[in-house]
Amino acid sequence: MLGRPAPPRRPDPRRAQDPLHAGPRHLDLFDLARKYPLTGGSVRNCVVRAAFLAAAEDAKLSQDHLMRAVRLEYRAAGKLSESGPLE
Which domain holds residue 37? Predict the structure, then answer.
């Protein structure tokens, strides 16, 4: 099958439902990463939590949803400060 080109790939409809692919240009992820250093698992938890917050409001994922999710993740981890990690 070397001489035959591959058929064009169709867009995956699940990616359109993924909140981070719904228009991340309005999200400042670098600012969040700088202010709140988190492990990979905590980042995932924050994104999932933010997606649920947005879905509960029937809204697109926003910076506010991510900020609230990060704060909730910090509280869940026992870090009471919202300005950064407690050491």
Answer: 25-76
